[in-house]
Amino acid sequence: MENGSPGIVGPPYSARLPAAARLLLLTSGKRITQVVHVVAELGIADHLADHPQTAAELAEVTGTHEESLARVLRAATTLEVLEELPDGRFTLTAMSEMLRRDNPDGVLDIVLLNGGELVWSPYGAILHTVRTGEPAFEHLYGMPFFEYLETHKDSGALFDKAMEHMSRVTARGLSGQIRPERFSLIADVGGGRGHFLRELLRSAPLAQGVLFDLPAVLPEAERTMAELGVAGRTKFVAGDFFGEVPSGCDAYVLKAVLHNWDDERALEILSRVHDAMSAGSDARLFIVEQVIGQPNRWDHATLLDLDMMLRFGGRERGLGEWRRLIETAGFDLVNEPATGGWAVLECRRNA
Ligand code: SAH
Questions:
Q1: Tell me: the pLDDT tens digits for 307-319?
Q2: Residue 148 scores a pLDDT above 90
Q3: Quick one: what percent of the chain has pLDDT higher than 70?
Q4: Distance (Å, rounded) from C-alpha 306 to C-alpha 123?
Q5: Whose CA is nearest to atom 17 of ligand 1?
Q6: What pLDDT digit, counting tens, does each position of 279-296 carry?
Q7: Which residues in 115-141 are b (16+ Cβ under 10 Å) and which e?
Q8: Other CB atoms closer than 10 Å to residue 95's CB: what's the count?
Q9: How far apart are CA 245 and CA 295, in angstroms?
């Protein structure tokens, strides 16, 4: 487990298999993803929470075609996502317990995002990106990803929930690395609904927070922060981080923001944060992102990097790339971040 998140720890095959079998298994990704997706999308785990059921019963409650559903469920049993009992009824396994809506450790929202059209379709057009360098998403949908989310509320809600889940499971460990109790005014730039800022403020009871994001995100953020009990210590500022970022804070956080942008745009965001920090102060910038590790080893960040490439032309970066970006923007990296997963890169102005 990486920082408390459900770690994906290796490639989806056993190294003991022959090379051709391993390769063919990799081309089964589409089948496996969609079997899991059907189980998730139809809420099968919730329907099985109380007692095992037959395919006919499950088809009835989910309003689906019985024989087709039965065949998907059978495939799910071979993946250990479900188990078929001797009497033909289906029951939950350790994995499908993770698809229950009421499981606080579950990963339903992430599974729904990964197998759903929003993430799924751009992978079908990956060769377009490889041939042209254009994000597959824009090629397919005719508009940038975040614009699509704003105009398609269901997709927007799905994406927000999955991101919120990721933020929640990673927040505790990452916040500890920042040691927020050192600071009195902490700005989370592109802070989303405020889950990470909440975690920081919880560890720093004397600090105040600034949540900075696009105008459309702020009402939701205010509601979430009020529920979390830290709205009283938080100022909500709507704006555009390519324009101006609130000045005079002693800590700035950019979490899962820079990976959405190419180097040129990421540099613009960093420069706006640089402008907002007082020269000569001891203010810190914390970039919270994945850091790609060594080649030839399993590294989930290299797959997330493809999501960024297909979705918005963004990228995950290795330590050398981070260092170059940070230094070009006028910061020094002052810690040694972990590689191969989420990391905190602590920076201060060098000019
Ligand atoms: N930091 C949060 C959200 C990351 S997603 C987390 O880790 O969960 C990127 C965030 O950047 C979104 O909340 C999005 O609304 C915000 N964002 C995108 N473009 C922006 C802009 N031009 N100005 C300010 N915020 C922006």
A1: 999 999 999 999 9
A2: yes
A3: 98
A4: 9
A5: 190
A6: 888 999 999 999 999 999
A7: bbebbeebbebeebbeeeeebbbbebb
A8: 16
A9: 36
| CA–centroid distance, residue 160 to ligand 1 (Å) | 11
Structure tokens at 314: 């963004």
Residues in the chain: 351
CA atoms within 13 A on the CB side of 331: 31
Contact 300, 306 (CB under 8 A): no
Q: DSSP secondary-structure letter at 278?
A: P
Q: What is the pLDDT of residue 3?
A: 40
Residue in the block written with tokens 């102005």: 349
The residue type at 252: Y
Q: What is the pLDDT of residue 6?
A: 52
| Measured distance between the N- and C-terminal CA atoms of the chain, rounded to whole angstroms | 38
Task: Provide mean pLDDT across the span 108-118.
Answer: 96
Ligand 1: atom nearest CA of 240 is 23
Rounded to 10 degrees, the C-alpha dihedral 342/114/126/20 comes to 90
Alpha helices in 214-318 (DSSP H): 218-228, 263-276, 300-312
CA distance 250 to 124: 44
pLDDT recorded at residue 5? 47
Q: Give the whole-angstrom CA distance, residue 208 versus residue 201.
A: 7
CB 128, CB 134: distance < 8 Å: yes
Residues facing residue 91 across a β-bridge: 83
- CA-254 nearest atom, ligand 1: 1
Strand, helix or coil for residue 334: coil
98 CA to centre of ligand 1 in angstroms = 28
Q: How far apart are CA 323 and CA 326, in angstroms?
A: 5
Question: Which residues does a 6 A CB cutoff place in the pocket of ligand 1?
Answer: 146, 163, 167, 190-192, 196, 213-214, 217, 240-242, 255-257, 260
